[in-house]
Amino acid sequence: MGADTAAELLAEGKRLVDEIDALAAGPQRLAAYLRLQGVVERAESALQEERS
């Protein structure tokens, strides 16, 4: 997790939001949403490590 930087996570999150916005409801949109959720979790973990 330490390899993730805030800039990388932000860029990945923005890309996923754009992808989600472009997709119709369905399995592909759900998969992209779940990837975004993973990015958020990695960002939270990275921030906790940074604060320790």
Total count of strands:
0
Shape: elongated
Low-confidence stretches: none
Mean pLDDT: 87
* Most strands sheet: none
Gyration radius over CA: 12 Å
* Terminal residue distance: 14 Å
> β content, as a range?
under 5%
Tally of contiguous helical segments: 2
Structural class: mainly alpha
Give the H and E element order. HH
Helix content: over 70%
Summary of the model, kept short:
This protein is 81% helix and 0% strand. It has 52 residues and is mainly α. The model has no long low-confidence stretch (mean pLDDT 87).
Q: Could you give the topology of this structure?
A:
Blueprint: H1 6-22, H2 27-51
Please describe what this structure looks like.
The chain has 52 residues and is mainly alpha-helical. The protein is built from two helices and no strands. Helix 1 (6-22) packs antiparallel against helix 2 (27-51). It is elongated and about 40 Å long.
